[in-house]
Write a structure and sequence with these properties.
CATH superfamily: Porin
Structural class: mainly beta
Shape: globular
Number of domains: 1
Helix content: under 10%
Radius of gyration: 22 Å
Distance between the termini: 31 Å
CATH class: Mainly Beta
Oligomer: single chain
CATH architecture: Beta Barrel
Largest sheet: 18 strands, antiparallel, barrel
Number of strands: 21
Length: 393
C-alpha cells in the first residue's frame, strides 16, 4: 500500500490599484487585495484531494460588502477507478475557440471581479464528475447541483433594487465526448440545466420601488468544436444551439433560443509571437410577445444587456496579438472585439513581467465603446486601467 504524500501547497497574494470597478458605478481609485491557495494531497495511491480557495477585498457584491471568500474547486478523485470519479466542486471548462466559447455553459463566471486573469473569475459546480475512456476519446459525464450562476454588472437605477441572492439551486447534467487526434481535436457536448445568466424578475413592488430577483431558467445546449493545425496556422471552430424552457410567469424577462458560431485561425509570426483572427455570429430565434406593461418592457431591455440578447443577428470579428520578450520574462497580450449591427467594440491590453521566480508585476487596460443600448457599449463605465504586484509560491 502506498503511503500518503505530503500536502502540496501553492498560491498567490496580490495587491493592486484599479481606476474603476466593474460594477457600472462611479467609483474610482479602487484598491484590491486578493489571495488564492491551491492544495493537492495524494492520500493514497488512487485517492487524491484537490482544493482551490480564494479570499479578497474588492467591490464586487451588490450589497456593497468588500470582503469575501469562497471555493473555486474542492473534490476527491479516485484516479485509478473506472471513469476516475471525482466528487465535489470541480471546474468544467469547454470550448476551443479564443475568448468567445458558445459551448462553455457549465462553469459560472463573476464578471464583476477585478482580476487581470479571466480564469480567476470562474468557479466550479458541485456534483459527481466522471472521465471515462471510450474508444479514441474520453466521455465526460457531470451530474451537478447548480448553486452558482454568472454574476453580472447591473447599473443602479433610482427606485430599483436588485437582490444579491443567487437563484435557487437546481440540478443539471452535462456530457461531452472529447477526442485528441493526430489530424484534429474535436468534441461534441450536451448540457441540460439552468442557463448561467440569471433571468431578471420582479420579486416585490413596494412604495419605495421595485425589488428585482435573479431567477434560474432551464435550458438545453447542444454544441461541438474542432481544432487542427496546417503548416503555421492553427484553425479553430465552435458551434452551439441553445433552447429555453419558461413557464410564462408575469413580470419575468423572456429568454430567446439561439444558435451561435465562431471560427478562425491563429498564425505563428515567430517563436514568441502570434496573431489570431476569428469571425463570430449569433442568431436569436422567435419573437418576443408584445407587452404594454412598461415594467415588462424595462425588464426585457435590462435582460438583453446582461445576456447579449438584443439583436436578432449579431456578427463581428475578434483579433488577438500576443508576444513574449525579455527572455520570456514579459508577456504582452492585446485583444479586440468589433460587433455589428450595433457597432460596439472593446479593446483589452495586458502586460505581465516576472521580476523574479516569485514576484510578478502586471498592468493593463479595458476600453468599451458603442451605443448605451448595446452589449459592449453598456459596459463603457467599466473601462479601466490597473497596476498589480503579486507574490507567487
Amino acid at each position: 500500500m502506498a503511503h500518503a504524500q505530503p500536502i502540496g501547497i501553492s498560491g498567490e497574494v496580490a495587491a493592486g490599484v484599479w481606476s474603476s470597478s466593474r460594477m457600472l458605478d462611479d467609483r474610482t481609485g479602487v484598491g484590491v487585495l486578493r489571495g488564492d491557495v491551491q492544495l493537492d494531497w495524494q492520500a493514497m495511491e488512487s485517492l487524491q484531494l484537490h482544493a482551490d480557495l480564494w479570499a479578497r477585498s474588492a467591490p464586487e457584491r451588490l450589497d456593497h460588502k468588500r470582503e469575501d471568500a469562497g471555493i473555486t474547486e474542492l473534490y476527491l478523485r479516485l484516479g485509478q477507478a473506472p471513469c476516475a470519479p471525482a466528487l465535489g466542486k470541480r471546474l468544467v471548462l469547454w470550448g476551443r475557440t479564443d475568448a468567445i466559447n458558445p459551448t462553455d455553459q457549465v462553469a459560472p463566471r463573476n464578471f464583476r471581479r477585478l482580476t487581470p486573469d479571466d480564469d480567476e473569475q470562474r468557479s466550479g459546480q458541485w456534483g459527481l464528475h466522471l472521465d471515462c475512456q471510450a474508444g479514441p476519446g474520453k466521455l465526460q459525464l457531470h451530474w451537478m447541483s447548480q448553486r452558482e450562476f454568472n454574476q453580472v454588472p447591473l447599473r443602479e437605477q433610482p427606485g430599483v433594487v436588485v437582490l444579491d441572492a443567487q437563484p435557487a439551486p437546481t440540478t443539471s447534467f452535462a456530457a461531452k465526448y472529447d477526442v485528441l487526434g493526430e489530424a484534429a481535436d474535436w468534441s461534441i457536448g450536451f448540457v441540460r440545466g439552468a442557463d448561467l445568466h440569471p433571468t431578471l424578475a420582479v420579486d416585490a413592488l413596494t412604495p419605495q420601488g421595485l425589488a428585482l430577483a435573479q431567477k434560474a431558467t432551464r435550458f438545453r445546449m447542444l454544441g461541438a468544436d474542432v481544432a487542427f493545425v496546417r503548416g503555421e496556422i492553427a484553425y479553430r471552430a465552435e458551434f452551439a444551439w441553445v433552447t429555453y424552457d419558461q413557464d410564462g410567469a408575469p413580470l419575468t424577462a423572456r429568454r430567446r433560443p439561439y444558435v451561435s458560431g465562431v471560427a478562425g485561425g491563429e498564425w505563428a509570426l515567430g517563436d514568441r509571437e502570434t496573431l489570431g483572427l476569428q469571425l463570430f455570429w449569433k442568431h436569436l430565434h422567435g419573437d418576443l410577445p408584445a407587452s404594454p406593461d412598461p415594467i415588462q418592457q424595462s425588464l426585457q431591455v435590462a435582460q438583453g444587456l446582461i445576456s447579449n440578447e438584443l439583436d436578432d443577428d449579431q456578427y463581428g470579428v475578434t483579433a488577438r496579438y500576443a508576444r513574449s520578450f525579455l527572455d520570456s520574462r514579459a508577456d504582452l497580450d492585446l485583444f479586440a472585439v468589433w460587433s455589428q449591427p450595433s457597432e460596439d467594440w472593446m479593446l483589452r491590453g495586458r502586460l505581465s513581467y516576472a521580476y523574479s521566480d516569485h514576484i510578478r508585476l502586471r498592468t493593463g487596460f479595458d476600453v468599451f465603446r458603442g451605443l448605451r443600448q448595446s452589449y459592449l457599449g453598456n459596459l463603457r463605465q467599466n473601462a479601466l486601467l490597473y497596476f498589480e504586484t503579486s507574490y507567487i509560491w
